Amino acid sequence: METPLGAIYSTNITPDPETGIGNYSFADFKRAVKHGVTPDNRPLYPAMPYPSYVIMPDEDIAAMYAYFMSDVKPVVHKNGDSTIPWPLDMRWPMSWWQLLFAPDRDFVADPKLSELENRGAYLIEGPGHCGACHTPRGLAYEEKSMAMKDHDVNNAFLSGAVIDGWRAKSLRAEARGLASWSQDDLEMFFKTGRTDVVAAFGAMGEVVEHSTRYMTNEDIRAMAAYLKQLPPAKDKILEFEPKEDITTAALQAGTDHSRGALLYVENCMVCHRADGQGIPRIFPALAGNSAIFAKNPQSTIQVTLEGGKMPSNDIDVMDFAMPAFNHLSTDDIVEVLNFIRNGWTNQAPKVTAKEVDHIKDFLAGKSPHLVHAGETHE
């Protein structure tokens, strides 16, 4: 996980006694998961979402502990050190951070919500820790809000953030959030990472492939129901002004000779079509896709430069990939993305060369995905 200070590598949590958690007692496990403290009293970085896990009741923690110790195969795998430089990598200041930003708390059901919606709220706030990516963070890297209270539009919970160079979209009811998503869309996305319009790439693809696809249909329904009743966040556009689609006809007639249109025809149209609709569940739509017209363009820039693969799931027979277009110049990336983000009925701020170069530098400087203890990070 790339942080503003350096990369943090997740650790071995198989029950191997030497390199994993095989020697953890239940009390050790509970303390680490809910409070971010290891058996040797080292505070964990908040990349481990214990500020969310703290609301989980002991019976859920006990079920997890039993699973790890009984059903998970022990694997000898030494942990990689972070790339955070000294003295910022010292752990003792984290104790103060935890005191300020990770207090002990319980899940509080909202009496105004249904039983299903409250189940969804618990899953979103706690074990799902959706806010860890989708809630903006403050100067101390703390989540600005850990839960929604009283439908307060000023609450920052799930209002969108940037993490690992990806835009984690707002999960609230704005035009650039979930306003264009139905409950069925959300349920299908949690199960497969796709709808007829969008597809998950990057970190969200991993969330679907390794987590949400295995959840019960009832829990997925609960999360979707909870998200769909959330209010829009403060100062967000609730709906776009009507806009006529003149892009499709111009592409089909070959009358748009702009650099962005030519790049789209050469590199994108074979999959995403002249009307920008793609092929449902195979090639994502670019027209009407809330990931495309997001206010912040980081995700569209990164997937254009790096490409990506859709998550595997139990419904779609095949996984499809987006090729990398990092051979295009910065100026060409700017032109084609601005064409896409404002083509058809899309409406989005212009992408700049500075934003593209920033993501290029970010990708060039990323730490390797997998490092063992003692190995270098170059």
Number of domains: 3
Rg estimate, integer Å: 22 Å
Mean pLDDT: 94
Largest beta sheet: strand ordering: 1-2
Instruction: Give the total of beta strands.
Output: 6
Distance N to C terminus: 16 Å
CATH topology of the largest domain: Cytochrome Bc1 Complex, Chain D, domain 2
How would you characterize the overall build of this protein?
By secondary structure, this protein is mainly alpha-helical. The protein folds into three domains: about 100 residues, no CATH class; about 110 residues, Cytochrome Bc1 Complex, Chain D, domain 2; about 120 residues, Cytochrome c-like domain (Cytochrome Bc1 Complex, Chain D, domain 2, Orthogonal Bundle). It has 15 helices and six strands. The strands form three sheets. Strands 1-2 form a two-stranded antiparallel ribbon. Strands 3-4 form a two-stranded antiparallel ribbon. It has a two-stranded antiparallel sheet with strand order 5-6. It is globular, with a radius of gyration of 22 Å.
